[in-house]
Amino acid sequence: MSAGIRSLFRAAYRADPLGVWSAPGRVNLIGEHTDYNDGFVLPFAIDRRTTVALGLRDDNVIRLASTFSDETVSLTLADLDAAVAGGRVTGWAAYPLGVAWALGQLDADLAGARGVDLLIDSDVPVGAGLSSSAAIESAVAVALDEVWALGLDRRTLARVGQHAENAVVGAPTGIMDQSASLLGIRDAAVFLDCRTLETRTIPLDLAPNDLAVLVIDTRVHHSHATGGYRDRRASCEAGAAALGVPALRDLGVDDLSRAEGMLDDVTFRRVRHVVTENARVLSTVDALGSGGPAAIGSLLDASHVSMRDDFEISVPELDLAVSVARENGALGARMTGGGFGGAAIALAPVAELERIGAAVVDAFAGAGFAAPELFPVTASDGARRED
Ligand code: GLA
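^ thats the input. predicted complex w/ alpha-D-galactopyranose below
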């Protein structure tokens, strides 16, 4: 992996990189739109990664090139604050530059920092709800943390990535994706309490049970900087305020009947999704511990129904992917990520993957939808230095 990006770096910058770092995308097993409500999530890092080659410079300039855009960007780090404030940091460069800026807000002296050349490559599909943006942010964050000798821990780097996304990219997203990308552990999911940022490693044991997680990318693209994601977050915050709690995390299933009498129908259903989804995350962690992965199918199904009917973030392509996967042997299936497009996941016996894939492709063609992209994923390690 590193040999390829090293030679791309040489072609772009006519020098050898100092090192290569990488960070994965993620699948969320369960716990959707719970992170910004101070709740629980259970994502895992996947075997699709963003790789960053970095070279140190003798000046204060940051230069960026990537394999997914012809655009190259060059900026003096001392000017980054003004560029961000002036809205001049846009497009894909907002992710890596946003991370450099957020490090400056936190700990790094950007005006005094050594400049860097970065080359970014990625095999995390963009717009599929698999956190291609968090993979870029996390890979750049670990690389800059190391070469600028900042010594920040992984939870702080996750906050840095989130800050970049919120303040520079302009998407009001939570802490889940960067946490999964930075804290992921092979063959395990990361159980994260988004209020305390405490984590527990939850073994998935998929392969020993002849099970796999299949991603069904509908190729319906979404953006969380506009529209539905922002609206859902605002409804959750309005619901918490009306119910007199700091965050929806502070409500349990027993509080729902009281909430129903106090909220309008739409806000109530948004609240009910978050409250029941938090409970499903806890049940999934318990079920994985006591019954293994075969025991969580109905929780995945219930999560999808809640997102479709209460939170209203699914689309027909995701609903079709989920129902066809279930009808063809999946133990459970749900959309994953922020919604309004992107991917579904199906938990299925390895022996059924081909049948499920063929049935989904046929069903999409029959419905007149664009062909989906299907691939199994395995739980992988988080961000790391490659060489
Ligand atoms: C996106 C956001 C996350 C999270 C999910 C929904 O992936 O980046 O913070 O809110 O949507 O669970």
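The chain has two domains: 2-201, 204-377.
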